[in-house]
C-alpha cells in the first residue's frame, strides 16, 4: 500500500500494426506437409509392428504344406488343430498355466511393494530418503545377465530356509515370482515415485483432517488416485514378466515347471527335426493373445497414466 | 461449539530466523466468524494450519474451548477444513466425499446416509450426490467442500481462501451464502482471505496480520473507522486511504497549505515532530472556489454509484522534507470519492478540504494512531 493511490493517465496507445498476411505456425501448406510426414511415419511404424504379427497369426491357421509352398498366401481353411497340437502335444498348455501362476504372484506383489515404497519415498521426508531412492534408480542399470550365476546359487540355497524352504528353491514358481519382483522394483518405484509426487498435497491434508491414519491415507485415497499410473506400470510388468526368458531358463529346469517362453523356445528348436512350423506359430499366438487382450482393454488407462504428469 | 485461543503461538520455518507467525495472541468467541486477512506471506494461512494441526506450533499454545490442542494430531482436534482448491477426492462420488469422515469414524450406514442427505439439502447438492467431482462446476465443487466440513458438525471450521477459485460474480454470491450458513449453524469459524472486501463483509471480527504479527483485531466498523496503525489504515478500504506525511507546528499539522488541528492528548502522544494525516477518499469535500488544497483531476473512474477522482495537487502536499530517494513516492496525488455520474472532467481544477471528522492522525515515527 502506498500512501496515495493514483494511476497516471495511460500513455497513448501505440499505433496499430498493419495487418500482416504472415501465417502463424501450424497453419497452411507447411503444416500440411508436416502432417503428411507425421502420418506417413506413423503408418510405416504401424506396418512394421503389425505385419509380422498378422503373418504369424495367418500362418498359425495353415497346414505345414501350405506354409512351406506359399508363405505369404492365405490359408484355404482355418486349421484349428494347429492350436490343439501346440496346446497338448507341445505342452504349451502346461507352460501357459505355469506362466499364469508366476505372473499372478509376481505382478500384484510388485505393484503392492512398489507402490508402497514409491509413496513413502515421494511424500515423506526422512533422513536417507534420497539414498534409498537412488538405490532403486541405480538398480535399473544393473543387467540381469550379471546376476545370473550368483542368483542361481542364492535361489538354490533358499530351499534350506526353515519353514518357507519347501516352497522356495529352484523349480519353484514362488521363487521365480520373487526374483521377478526384485528385478521389477527399480523401474516400478522410479515410475510411481514420479507419479505420487504429482498428487496434490492438499488432498492428503484433507484426508488427514478427515481422520485418516497413514495407512488409511495410502490405501483409501492416494492409491485409488494413482490408478492410471498403477495400470500403466502394472501392464508394463505383466508384459515383462510374461515374456521373461532368461530367468526361467536359469531357475526352472524341470520340464513340468517351465514357463511359456521356454516352451516356445523348445518348440522352435525341435522344429529343426520335425518341421511342424504351424504348431509353433499357433503356440506363439497362444502366448501373444493374453498380452494383446490386456493391452487392448487397458489402452486408454495406459495413455492416461503416461501423460498424467503433463495434464493437471 | 467452542472458543479458540491462540496464546503466544509462534511458528518458525526451517532455515528462517524470522517467525512466520510471531507470538500470536487471539481469542475467538464461541460461534464467532473471525476473518484473518493480510497481504501474501503475512502468516494468515500458517495461523490457520497451526490451528488445524497441519503445521506445528514452536512456541506458545492453542486451545479449543478448555482443551489444549497444541500437540494433538489433526484428527483429534474436531476441526473441519475447507481448502482453497477444495481438495476433493477425485475417485469418490460427491456423497462419498461428504461422508468420508463419517465412514472413517465407522458411523452406521443408515445414519451416515441421513447426515449426507441433510448436508446436501442444505447446500443444494442433492441432484449431484452420485457424481464424481470432475463432473461438477467450480461452484458445485466449492459446495461439496463445504458439505464435507458441515457433515462433521465440528467445533471449529477452518476455511483457507475458499472463494478464490470462483469467478467474481459467483464469489460475491457464495460469500453471503457462507456467511449466512455460518450464522445458522453457529459454529466458530476462522476464515483466511487476502481480499479485504471479503474480510469486511463476512467477519464478525477481522484480524489483520503483517509479517506474522497481529496488527489489529476488531469489528469491520472498528477497523475501518479507527485503524490502529498506518498499515491497517492503508490495507483496509478500497481505494486506499490517502496518507500524507506532515509537519506539526504550533497550530497543527500542515498539509498542502491547510492546517489540521491537534488535540493536547495527540500532541503529548506524539514521539517526534511529524505525523501522517490519513483521509479516506470519501473524507474530502470538493470545493470549487479555491478555499482548499488546489488540485487537478488526472483520472476519473466512474463506477455508476460512485466516482473516484485521482487528483494531483499543484502545491507540495506533504510539509515534511522527503529524502531524495523518497521523491518518487512523495505524495502529490489524492484519491477523492465524488457522487456517481458527477460531471468531473479530466484536467478540471478542484479544491479539496478534509472533513473534520474524517481525519485520522498517525505518529510518523511509530506508525501508531494518535488518540482521538
Describe this structure in words.
- The complex is a heterodimer of chains A (312) and B (372).
- Chain A folds into two domains: 34-69; 94-306, MetI-like fold, CATH 1.10.3720.10.
- In chain A, 69% of the residues lie in helices and 0% in strands.
- Chain A is built from 13 helices and no strands.
- Chain A has helices spanning 29-59, 64-69, 81-89, 92-123, 129-139, 144-157, 173-197, 201-209, 214-225, 227-242, 246-251, 260-274, 277-306.
- In chain A, helix 3 (81-89) packs across helix 13 (277-306) and helix 8 crosses helix 9.
- Chain A starts with 28 loop residues before the first helix and ends in a 6-residue tail after the last helix.
- By secondary structure, chain B is an alpha+beta fold.
- Chain B has two domains: 4-230, P-loop containing nucleotide triphosphate hydrolases (Rossmann fold, 3-Layer(aba) Sandwich), CATH 3.40.50; 240-363, Nucleic acid-binding proteins (OB fold (Dihydrolipoamide Acetyltransferase, E2P)).
- Chain B has nine helices and 20 strands.
- Chain B has helices spanning 44-52, 94-104, 109-122, 138-150, 168-185, 196-202, 220-225, 230-235, 264-269, and strands spanning 4-11, 21-28, 33-37, 59-64, 67-68, 79-82, 156-160, 188-193, 205-210, 213-218, 242-248, 252-255, 258-261, 274-279, 284-287, 293-302, 306-313, 333-339, 349-354, 359-363.
- The radius of gyration of chain B is 25 Å and the shape is elongated.
- The model of chain B is unreliable at 323-330 (pLDDT under 50).
- The chains are: A mainly alpha (312), B alpha+beta (372).
- Chains A and B meet through helix 8 and helix 9 of A and strand 6, helix 2, helix 8, strand 11 and strand 17 of B.
Amino acid at each position: 500500500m502506498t500512501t496515495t493511490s493514483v494511476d497516471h493517465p495511460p500513455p497513448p496507445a501505440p499505433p496499430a500494426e498493419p495487418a500482416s498476411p504472415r501465417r502463424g505456425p501450424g497453419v497452411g501448406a507447411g503444416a500440411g506437409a508436416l502432417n503428411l510426414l507425421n502420418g506417413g511415419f506413423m503408418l510405416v511404424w504401424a506396418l512394421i509392428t503389425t505385419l509380422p504379427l498378422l503373418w504369424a497369426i495367418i500362418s498359425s491357421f495353415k497346414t505345414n504344406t501350405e506354409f512351406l509352398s506359399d508363405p505369404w498366401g492365405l490359408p484355404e481353411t482355418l486349421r484349428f488343430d494347429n492350436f490343439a497340437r501346440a496346446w497338448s502335444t507341445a505342452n504349451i498348455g502346461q507352460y501357459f498355466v505355469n506362466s499364469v501362476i508366476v505372473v499372478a504372484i509376481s505382478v500384484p506383489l510388485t505393484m503392492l511393494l512398489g507402490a508402497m515404497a514409491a509413496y513413502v519415498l515421494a511424500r515423506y521426508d526422512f533422513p536417507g530418503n534420497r539414498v534409498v531412492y537412488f538405490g532403486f534408480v541405480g538398480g535399473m542399470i544393473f543387467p540381469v545377465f550379471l546376476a545370473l550365476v550368483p542368483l542361481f546359487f542364492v535361489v538354490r540355497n533358499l530351499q534350506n530356509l526353515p519353514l518357507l524352504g519347501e516352497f522356495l528353491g529352484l523349480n519353484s514358481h514362488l521363487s521365480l515370482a520373487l526374483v521377478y519382483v526384485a528385478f521389477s522394483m527399480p523401474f516400478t518405484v522410479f515410475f510411481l515415485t514420479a507419479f505420487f509426487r504429482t498428487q496434490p498435497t492438499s488432498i492428503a491434508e484433507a484426508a488427514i483432517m478427515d481422520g485418516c491414519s497413514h495407512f488409511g491415507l495410502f490405501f483409501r485415497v492416494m492409491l485409488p488416485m494413482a490408478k492410471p499410473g498403477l495400470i500403466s506400470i502394472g501392464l508394463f510388468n505383466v508384459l515383462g514378466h510374461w515374456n521373461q526368458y532368461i530367468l526361467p531358463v536359469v531357475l526352472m529346469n524341470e520340464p513340468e515347471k517351465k514357463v511359456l517362453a521356454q516352451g516356445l523356445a523348445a518348440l522352435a528348436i525341435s522344429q529343426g527335426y520335425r518341421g511342424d512350423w504351424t504348431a509353433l506359430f499357433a503356440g506363439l499366438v497362444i502366448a501373444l493373445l493374453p498380452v494383446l487382450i490386456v493391452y487392448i482393454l487397458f489402452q486408454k488407462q495406459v495413455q492416461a497414466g503416461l501423460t498424467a504428469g503433463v495434464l493437471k | 461449539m467452542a472458543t479458540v485461543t491462540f496464546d503466544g503461538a509462534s511458528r518458525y520455518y526451517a532455515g528462517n530466523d524470522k517467525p512466520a507467525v510471531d507470538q500470536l495472541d487471539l481469542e475467538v468467541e464461541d460461534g464467532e466468524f473471525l476473518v484473518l486477512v493480510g497481504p501474501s506471506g503475512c502468516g494468515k494461512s500458517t495461523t490457520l494450519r497451526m490451528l488445524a494441526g497441519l503445521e506445528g506450533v514452536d512456541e506458545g499454545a492453542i486451545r479449543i474451548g478448555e482443551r489444549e490442542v497444541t500437540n494433538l494430531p489433526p484428527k483429534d482436534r474436531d476441526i473441519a477444513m475447507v481448502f482453497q482448491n477444495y481438495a476433493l477426492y477425485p475417485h469418490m462420488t460427491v456423497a462419498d466425499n461428504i461422508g468420508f469422515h463419517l465412514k472413517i469414524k465407522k458411523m452406521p450406514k443408515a445414519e451416515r446416509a441421513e447426515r449426507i442427505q441433510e448436508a446436501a439439502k442444505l447446500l443444494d447438492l442433492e441432484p449431484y450426490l452420485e457424481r464424481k467431482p470432475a463432473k461438477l462446476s467450480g461452484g458445485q465443487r466449492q459446495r461439496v467442500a463445504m458439505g464435507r466440513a458441515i457433515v462433521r458438525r465440528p467445533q471449529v471450521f477452518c476455511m483457507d481462501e475458499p472463494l478464490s477459485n470462483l469467478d467474481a460474480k459467483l464469489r460475491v454470491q457464495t460469500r453471503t451464502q457462507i456467511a449466512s450458513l455460518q450464522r445458522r449453524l453457529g459454529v466458530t469459524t476462522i476464515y483466511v482471505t487476502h481480499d479485504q472486501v471479503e474480510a469486511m463483509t463476512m467477519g464478525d471480527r477481522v484480524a489483520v496480520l503483517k509479517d506474522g504479527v497481529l496488527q489489529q483485531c476488531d469489528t469491520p466498523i472498528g477497523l475501518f473507522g479507527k485503524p490502529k496503525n498506518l498499515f491497517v489504515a492503508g490495507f483496509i478500504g478500497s481505494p486506499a486511504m490517502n496518507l500524507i506525511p506532515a509537519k506539526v507546528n504550533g497550530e497543527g499539522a500542515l498539509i498542502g497549505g491547510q492546517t489540521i488541528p491537534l488535540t493536547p492528548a495527540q500532541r503529548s502522544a506524539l514521539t517526534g515532530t511529524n505525523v501522517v494525516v490519513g483521509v479516506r477518499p470519501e473524507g474530502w469535500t470538493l470545493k470549487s472556489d479555491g478555499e482548499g488544497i488546489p488540485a487537478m483531476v488526472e483520472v476519473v473512474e466512474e463506477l455508476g454509484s460512485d466516482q473516484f477522482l485521482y487528483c494531483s495537487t499543484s502545491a507540495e502536499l506533504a510539509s515534511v522534507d522527503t529524502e531524495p530517494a523518497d521523491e518518487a513516492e512523495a505524495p502529490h496525488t489524492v484519491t477523492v470519492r465524488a457522487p456517481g455520474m458527477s460531471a468531473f472532467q479530466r484536467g478540471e481544477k478542484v479544491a479539496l478540504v478534509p472533513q473534520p471528522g474524517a481525519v485520522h492522525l498517525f505518529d510518523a515515527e511509530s506508525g501508531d494512531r494518535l488518540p482521538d
